[in-house]
Write a structure and sequence with these properties.
Length: 358
């Protein structure tokens, strides 16, 4: 997958191509951006450009080295990812990585390590990785992929060159869903609107299940006031549960989707309510089939109430990215949303989150 096959990340790719052309690659890169927007594809394209013998510094995409990288089996490319059942990346994994990087390359000129979900590195693992970055092997290239650098130590971040990846334009997500993944235009449009610029997020949504979940979620949100704690706790448990993508082949393993996707739906609901309160029902873009409920909720909450609830949900999502207890964080969120004047206990001076792109 050479750079030319990656769409929507022209600025990030241009930065890497300039470094390749000048033979000035950094020894470590930190790719920052939401999941499903092309960070890993770009990392593998960079590995191809480094290891390709046919078109060095570019990558041909067809030679043996490029094919091995694309298949994930090149002996000089190491993928470090969270182990099944683990909450994060541990120090033993980093030590194994250090040992492997200390070996001479088998086929290429460099050994390349890709650290997926680097924001999940445990503190001891970060310390071990920092030592590796401070004294990197001369023939090693490290690429850390993260959705957020806030959980990484400042010394660790400072040892890497940061490359930021932006959410994909929604028309591009829609076009890719139709052209490369066989979605019909109407389904592609719906999924793109809820993708937040992430093709991976759009593909994780089963359209039928998604519509059912959204309807259930909206009904529950409108009944929060006066709900018992047991009811709120059950709703919280449903909100934080991992989605599972059913296998399409008999030998395919079910894949857990990212926890928090349902909370993103809560966020989008209050975004639409706020749009309606400020601009009228014509401003509703994603919940157009739920206009009466949106209008009623906007009338009940007003712009300030919708903004308060939007901020509460956003802060909860941020807390979950910092590895807060999911069940307790979401229960606290629902308790605040159920109050007539939510957020009364919030710290003063906190800024509201801007509306995300539709």
């Amino acid at each position: 997958m050479p750079f030319a096959a990656i769409q929507g990340q022209e600025r990030a790719i241009a930065l890497l191509q300039r470094a390749l052309a000048r033979d000035r690659l950094a020894h470590a890169y930190l790719f920052i951006g939401p999941s499903g927007i092309g960070k890993k594809r770009t990392a593998y394209a960079l590995a191809q450009a480094v290891l390709c013998n046919v078109q060095p510094r570019t990558g041909c995409g067809t030679c043996t080295a490029c094919a091995l990288v694309a298949a994930g089996v090149h002996p000089d490319v190491i993928l470090l990812a969270r182990e099944p059942g683990k909450q994060g990346l541990g120090i033993d994994q980093v030590r194994d990585l250090q040992r492997l990087l200390g070996l001479r390359p088998v086929q290429g000129e460099k050994k390349i390590a890709l650290l997926d979900d680097a924001h999940l590195l445990h503190p001891p693992a970060q310390s071990a990785l920092l030592k590796l970055l401070e004294e990197p092997p001369g023939d090693a290239l490290l690429i850390l992929l993260t959705v957020n650098s806030a959980t990484l130590s400042r010394p660790l971040v400072s040892r890497c060159q940061q490359v930021r990846f932006r959410p994909l334009p929604l028309p591009l997500v829609e076009a890719l869903l139709v052209r490369e993944h066989g979605k019909d235009p109407a389904t592609a449009r719906t999924l793109a609107l809820y993708s937040q610029g992430s093709l991976g997020r759009a593909l994780s949504l089963d359209p039928k299940v998604f519509i059912e979940e959204r309807r259930y979620l909206e009904e529950e949100l409108q009944q929060l006031a006066g709900a018992s704690f047991a009811t709120l706790s059950r709703f919280a448990e449903w909100l934080v549960a991992d989605r599972v993508k059913k296998p399409t082949k008999t030998n395919e393993i079910p894949e857990n989707r990212t926890a928090g996707d349902r909370l993103e739906l809560v966020l989008s609901w209050y975004e639409e309510v706020l749009r309606c309160a400020l601009l009228g029902q014509e401003a509703v873009r994603r919940h157009t089939d739920r206009i009466p409920a949106i209008v009623r909720t906007a009338s009940e909450l007003g712009a300030m109430g919708a903004l308060q609830r939007l901020t509460i949900v956003y802060d909860t999502l941020q807390a979950l990215q910092r590895n807060a207890n999911r069940q307790l964080a979401v229960e606290d969120m629902l308790l605040q949303l159920a109050q007539r004047e939510p957020g009364s206990g919030r710290k003063s001076g906190s800024l509201p989150v801007p509306l995300s792109s539709p």
